[in-house]
Amino acid sequence: MEFLSFSVFVAAVIIFFTISLISLSLVYENDDGRRIKLPPGSFGWPVIGETMEFLFSKPEKFVGDRMNKYSPDIFKTKILGEKTAVICGSNGHKFLFSNDQKLFTAFRPHPTQKLFRSYQTPAPAPSATDQNPRNNNDSEESKVIRKPGFLKPEALKKCLGKMDSISQQLLQNHWGENGKKIVEAYPLAKTVTLTLSCRFFLGIDNPERISRLVKHFDDVTLGLHSVTLNVPGTAFYRARKAAAAVRKELLHVIKEKKEVMSASGPMQDILSHMIVSSGSHVTENEIADKIMGLVVAGYSTVATVIVFLMKYVGERPDIYDKIRTEQMEIGESKKEGELLEWEDMQKMKYSWNVIRETMRLNPPLQGTFREVLTDFTYAGYTVPKGWKVYWTVSTTNMNPTYFKEPEKFDPSRFDEGEGQTPYTYLPFGGGPRTCPGKEYARLAILAFVHNVVKKYKWEVLFPDEKVIGDMMPTPEKGLPIRLHHL
């Protein structure tokens, strides 16, 4: 009897402490001593939190499971070493993007900070409107992109011909020789993307130099979504080595640029303007890191869209026929050797819908982080200053409320108005931090599509090919296809 009473006492103590811990996890005392109601959720394991689930499960599963368990609007977690509130759905997107630079500022996760070393250098003294200078949107690289207008439509019009000719040349070099029948689509998608980035961002035209960089940029991109464990064999270790190799190559490019510019050479790329705008107070290493960040941002995203577009179109002859009809009409309206112009791109409406649907199912951007500047309340819960906020496209892209039969590949849904509700379809983010390269990406992909369907028809050899990686989805075999030369 005494033993039974003792057991009941122990059970009661355990229940009491469990309830207390749960209560403490839901209530937080901020800097002013006020008790605030935190979002529901779990911080997961000590130290690592829920990072492993975040990195190695599909984003829609990680977020969807927690939306179902805790709240469809907001939940808390701990990922990549940070206490994080995940804001969900179209209303969450609207709240986040409408309050950017008011409640939030940009935040680069720790893997990014460690791989791009210059992002950790001391920042200048803050101005009256700059609450967090190290993450301020008006970073030097951001100013360089926007002020010369490199990625604005009026500037990109001048680049279209070069995009067209580069796509033609690379298709001929990689797939046109000896009438190749079986090829892998993914390596070409990466080569096309990196060649365009190197040409317009760095002013590099050397194919050998570019080919040396492809593997390095792959490793750096994978390292951005990894645990920062710098041990041989880990993704982060490979990324550190790759970033060092890319930095070394870029330092050579910067020195070459300076020599050309000292002789009054033209400044026709972003790197040249970055060198000038940086002046003497920014080191060459910092410039190299900043331009590397820009190239990485545009490299994997565009390559991912191209390779999955090749997959979906290769599996759907009906969609291929519609794209080819549209592109052949444009091609037949042009003289021999005449390159694409701005007006041609506006006629590619169906092709663009296919690209949009590809980005819905395989987003080039899964989501981004923000840092909380001041306590804020959303959906009845308060998120403390200093926490991070994460938003992800998966809370709307695969939601049947906005897209009927969301698992189905159906480009016509965009003609029917699906995804037109504000803040439901955001492949390039939204608000003041909308990706400045979205128009560049659109034109680069369309130029490739124009040329590939004019020259080839193809079949996907392994329709059920495994896709590895969730933050950077990749066909495991490189998407082998059977080419039919036209």
What does this protein look like?
The structure is a single chain. The protein has 486 residues and is of the alpha+beta class. The protein has 18 helices and 14 strands. It has helices spanning 2-26, 51-56, 59-69, 89-98, 110-115, 140-146, 153-156, 160-176, 185-202, 207-223, 235-262, 270-278, 284-315, 317-332, 342-346, 349-361, 394-397, 438-455; strands at residues 27-29, 35-37, 74-79, 82-87, 104-106, 182-184, 367-372, 376-378, 381-383, 388-392, 456-460, 467-468, 474-475, 480-485. The strands form 5 sheets. The chain has a 5-stranded mixed sheet with strand order 3-4-10-7-5. Strands 6-14-11 form a 3-stranded antiparallel sheet. A two-stranded antiparallel ribbon has the order 1-2. Strand 12 and strand 13 form a beta hairpin. The chain is globular. The termini are far apart. Mean pLDDT is 85; it is low at 8-25 and 119-141.
Helical content class: 40-55%
Strands side by side in the biggest sheet:
3-4-10-7-5
Number of strands: 14
Query: What global shape is seen?
Result: globular
The class by helix and strand makeup works out as alpha+beta
Whole-angstrom Rg: 25 Å
Largest sheet: 5 strands, mixed
Q: Low-confidence spans: pLDDT under 50, at least 5 residues?
A: 8-25, 119-141
- Strand residue percentage: 5-15%
Mean pLDDT: 85
* Count of discrete alpha- or pi-helical segments spanning 4 or more residues: 18
Kindly report how far apart the N and C termini lie: 89 Å
